[in-house]
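Hi R.,

Here's the chain you asked about this morning:
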Amino acid sequence: MARKRLPAPELFQAALDGDRSALARLLSLIERGDEEAREIGRLAYPRSGAGYTVGLTGAPGAGKSTLTSAIIKHLRSLELDIAVLAIDPSSPFTGGAILGGRVRMQDHATDPGVFIRSMATRGHLGGLSLATPEAVRALDAIGRRWILVETVGVGQVEVEVAGKADTTIVVVNPGWGDSVQANKAGLMEIADIFVINKADRKGVDETRRDLMQMLDLSDLSHDAWRPPILNTTGTTGEGVIELWDTVLEHREFAEKSGLLQERRTFRLREELREIIAQRLGRRARLICTGRRWDELTNEVAALTTDPWTAADEMLAAIDA
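And the predicted structure, written out as tokens:
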């Protein structure tokens, strides 16, 4: 017998009451991005604000999932509840590389204090730029005070997603490459903490010197916070306690300096801008149909009307 589909408010309340399957379905609706997603957003927004988001990004193979698993283990030893969003913008399916990452976190899968979710762009009209903050907000609203956001790689989308966290950890490996590649990826701009993972390998000192040189040459915009460089070995958990202590230090700094509020305000402004842009984009697609649209495109093709004049006429339909 098929499970009865609950309306978004009832689903949200069930998630508040601790129903993990209801929470999973809430996130699925958020990924889909339709009117129900907006309703969930309206319900979650007033309850959000107490959670803290930590982003982890780095090149594929850097050991982010293993390191995330070690962080989860440490946080659970402190009796903290955690949610993990594993972001894969390249795949429209749950699975692929992210599924492998979730397998590496399988020791925590049955722990009621841990909630792990893979997210992809899927059919969300706003893509990850809207789905991710909405998912974080939902997790925050239902009481998860620590939310880890792990991205697959270091492309533009992944860097943007990780950079929307309250604290961003950039994970590299010994012998990871030169500073030019790091700057191209935008990692210097978003990093609050650098982690040299797999520190039991050769090349740690050289990588540290490379990172320090980049930091010396960078125009840091973190209001006097200089990203520290830490060593970890995710497979053994070595360095994870020190890493988490540094996350706490950055949180304290961000709260006292006003940086945290500044970042969150900026993110909300960007989210609002993205929502408006997405809605205008949908309206634009709607008006680019019909008889007059076909006539105008034919006129442009025949060089009897220029594209700007044709666009002005179509846009007038929005302004009317």
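The mean pLDDT is 84.

Let me know if you need anything else.
M.
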